[in-house]
Amino acid sequence: MHLALPPAQLLSLADKHGLPLFVYDGGTITRQIESLRSALDVPALEIHYACKALNTIGIVKHIHNHGCGIDTVSPGEIVIALQAGVPASEISFTPSGVLTEEYAFAISKGVHVHVDQFHVLDWLDIHYPGLEITLRFNPAIQAGGHSKLQVGSDGSKFGIMSHQVDAIKEKTRSLSLRITGVHMHLGSDIGDSGSFDQAYEYLLTIARQWADTIQRIDLGGGFKIPYHPQDHSIDMPAFGHKISQRFRRFCEEIGRPLTMVVEPGKYLVSAAGYLLMEVSAIRDGGSIPMAFVSSGFNHFLRPMNYGAYHHLINLSNPEGDVHHYDIVGYLCETDNFASNRPIHEIRRGDILCLMNAGAYGYTMASNYNTRPRPAEVLIADDGRTQLIRRAESFADIMQTDLGYVADGLSSPVDPKAG
Ligand SMILES: Cc1ncc(COP(=O)(O)O)c(C=O)c1O
Predict the structure, then answer these.
(1) Is CB count within 10 Å lower at the N or C end of the chain?
(2) Is 86 among the domain residues?
């Protein structure tokens, strides 16, 4: 597990922008896009980056500049993609259980929508007759790095279930909507291509049902990257070769070239991200020393939410003796980044770097304990550094709090007070 950026550069960015700080290496993102594209040899390929992983406009722009479309899950993400300069024709909308107003918003912007609910089909047919849509199916296969990430398994809330397929076929026959795509998303952190093969076969079987109108087959995302030094990544060249071959055979069977769509999130951005945090205190005396950092699960949720391993490096003392530490955050709640972790001696004031912080880091951050979220810096392909999001202030957080009005006395909150 190595840093793609020199430690001195990270330390100087910390000095310039303050801590905590997210830093993203654009070069790593670019290499991941290229590795995916070169592995997939099909008549037509669209990579739709699942921007829920990290949707700062600067990042979305970088990824779009490298030829990717964007997959979105909310009106907010659609607006971000449009503001990043992505044409509506390169944006897809894959929500889950949302109000029809959200579909109306997406369609008003010209964005292609993915549907997995019967009532939405009826509603679309009335309001947008003839609309081209993609249907999302649930392959009922359990795969993914954590139970919360196994979204394509039987009983999950996502996608049309296998027992609904006949009914959906029947329904779409009676509607004016054109089914131009089929979609699945199996889950996240999937390294074993066997589950993909199975799910993929299932999706192709489904695609045959709409063989006369189908234009694209969307395999979703979920491609595994290593988190632990001993961990492995999906074997992208082997995986890509296999699914491409199968896809080309399917195009031959259908008798025309189709577009393969993939929706990677973490595969593109996870390893590109670093979260820099200052050590605020060391507590000795227990069985394992504890290092407190000036951040917490308000900024990076994955260790607490998924029990995820994230590698940590002491940037300030890379040659120090290695000891074991519990690394904990500053929230007033159990807030662990790592337990019993071997790391170069940690001293108060040191700067720790949490790796693989690009995906589901900032986008899952909150203001819990009324703490502002950090700034974000992107290092472009040419090495230029750009602040792509300033740090939040207390005033930003308080903007929506209108204060309390009682007995005719208004006491608006003045964020600048105190
Ligand atoms: C519909 C859909 N596509 C793609 C992704 C991206 O997954 P990953 O970041 O694991 O590649 C997700 C993640 O939840 C998703 O829900």
Answers:
(1) C
(2) yes
Q: Smallest Cα–Cα separation from 68: which of 41, 93, 87, 83? A: 87
Please identify, by atom number, the ligand 1 atom nearest to the C-alpha of residue 149.
Answer: 14
Q: Which two tokens stand for residue 98?
A: 């949302």
Are residues 132 and 164 part of one domain? yes
Helix, strand or coil for residue 409? Answer: strand
Q: What CATH number does the domain containing 230 carry?
A: 3.20.20.10
Measuring from each residue's beta carbon to the nearest atom of ligand 1, which residues come in under 6 Å? 50, 53, 71, 94, 185, 188, 220-223, 263-267, 359
In this structure, are residues 304 and 335 in contact, taking their beta carbons and an 8 Å threshold? yes
- Specify whether 238 is located in the same domain as 334: no
Looking only at the bridges linking them, the beta strands covering 91-93 and 322-328 are unpaired
Residue 195 φ/ψ, nearest 5 degrees:
-65, -40
- From the alpha carbon of 189, which atom of ligand 1 is closest? 10
Task: pLDDT band for 418, please (50, 70, 90 cuts).
Answer: very low
Contact 80, 53 (CB under 8 A): no
Within this chain, do residues 65 and 151 fall inside the same structural domain, yes or no?
A: yes
Judge contact between 295 and 365, C-beta under 8 A.
no
In CATH, what number is assigned to the domain containing residue 346? Answer: 2.40.37.10
User: How far is it, in rounded angstroms, from Cα 242 to Cα 134?
Assistant: 24
DSSP per-residue codes, 120-178: HHHHHHHHSTT-EEEEEB------SSSGGG-TTSTT-SSSB-GGGHHHHHHHHHTSS-E
Residue 187 shares a structural domain with residue 307: no
Q: Report the separation in Å between the CA atom of 139 and the middle of ligand 1, taken as the mean of its atom positions.
A: 15
208 and 136: one domain?
Answer: yes
- Tell me the residue length of the chain: 418
One-letter amino acid for residue 149 of the chain:
L
Residue for token pair 């592995």: 39
**CA 56 – ligand 1 centroid, Å:** 17
Active-site residue flag, 332:
yes
Domain shared by 275 and 357, yes or no: yes
* DSSP string over 67-81: T-EEEESSHHHHHHH
The pLDDT value recorded for residue 414 is 63
pLDDT at 349 over 90: yes
Tell me if 1 is assigned to some domain: no
Which pLDDT tens digit goes with each residue over 170-208?
Answer: 999 999 999 999 999 987 787 777 888 888 999 999 999
Name the active-site residue from 51, 68, 251, 332. 332
Range of the domain at 227: 27-266
Establish if 124 belongs to a structural domain.
Answer: yes
Q: Is residue 410 part of a domain?
A: no
